[in-house]
Amino acid sequence: MKSIETTFEKELKDEIALLPIVELKANSVVLMENSYVKEIPILLEGIIKVRKTDESGKEIILYQIYPGESCILSITACLNDKQCNAEAYVEKTSKLVMIPANKVKLWMEKYSSWKQYVYNHYYERFDELLGLIDAIAFKHVDLRLLNKLKEHQLKQGNEIEITHQILAKEIGTAREVISRLLKQLEKENFIILERGIIKIIRTL
Amino acid sequence: MKSIETTFEKELKDEIALLPIVELKANSVVLMENSYVKEIPILLEGIIKVRKTDESGKEIILYQIYPGESCILSITACLNDKQCNAEAYVEKTSKLVMIPANKVKLWMEKYSSWKQYVYNHYYERFDELLGLIDAIAFKHVDLRLLNKLKEHQLKQGNEIEITHQILAKEIGTAREVISRLLKQLEKENFIILERGIIKIIRTL
DNA sequence: TTGACATGGTGACGTACGTCACGATCATTA
DNA sequence: TAATGATCGTGACGTACGTCACCATGTCAA
Lengths: 204, 204
What we know:
The structure is a homodimer of 204-residue chains.
Chain A: H1 4-7, H2 10-17, E1 21-24, E2 29-31, E3 39-45, E4 48-53, E5 59-65, H3 72-79, E6 87-90, E7 94-100, H4 101-110, H5 112-138, H6 141-156, E8 159-161, H7 164-171, H8 175-187, E9 191-194, E10 197-200
Antiparallel strand pairs in A: 1-7, 2-6, 3-7, 4-5, 4-6, 8-10, 9-10
Chain A binds a DNA duplex (30 and 30 nucleotides) through helix 8.
């Protein structure tokens, strides 16, 4: 998706410029499950992850929000005056603009660029969720790990900074499983493992 | 969700009344994966299922569309001029109104009841998809089968007309697995199995 | 320096469930 | 009436992967 600068028309950017910028520390919860939504975040810096947690504490990452993007689940809850059905938290310290819920509705009428922004989010997130369903329904964990590694490679390059634990949660499995599979990939000379770092040395 | 009668304002109902009604036979594909969307269906009678199919032919039902409802994936594709990323087909012979894609966009501005209808679909379908992810990520097949049976019970009563094969596809597993689990439930006196029918005789 | 955590490596074990391979019935059509 | 296809039952088998139980490091704060 595009940056706020190029996406929105001038008057909308002016309105947004008037809104407060919030800085959140790592692991802060942006949006709680089953709560009503009063503000919609647009992410300026950092990463937000949206997760679903099981009663037993197992969790899976539904999708990630990058700078310039917003949280479609919040927007949906807001447009319908309903609760939200997943949890969003910031992975690294992040900066966000918080938009009051009532503006979100207003802007849908007032600014066609906002409307298009929301429509686009619906498309992209649906696509991601369908991809996730496809993955967990049909793909084995080893393949999903490979895809996840490639995904991180696209964003971080060949030296990926991540722990096995976080990878496991992104994929929705146990840490030991990931550790074992990664070790396997290391033996096959695809990657080199270091504490908190995965170096990719051959095309996955 | 509600019926078209009560949901829409008069002028919109009048517009819809002018559109052709199509009757589709069982297993017709309403909407193909990766195709551009020219018409949005509103279902009048019957059932539409939206599915994702694996290369190997395995499939899972994403959600079902009942009378009065529409297909949010079509709408999303349409609002973004993009292809659709799943396949919809009719389960039983069904009647639908087909709305030209350009009207869908127009109506978002013109009729607030239509806008609300679409917003509501987004909320409901997201909720269902998140529920599905939760289920396939965390729940075992036996539990998912129980839930699916309850779901059918709500719609059809205690005598559910369905084959093991279809149940398997709805859940995304193999027929044998479902047959075995159902047999187990029969042994435990929860259900009675007949060809094409599952009778529920005790609270699941 | 010394705990206290966070990270990760690895063996052992159980099991849910996917797959193959049959056969037995029922239903529909030629 | 024979034949063909849909539906269902069931045994056998393999295996991916979740879980438990440790231990070995590295890191950071007190």
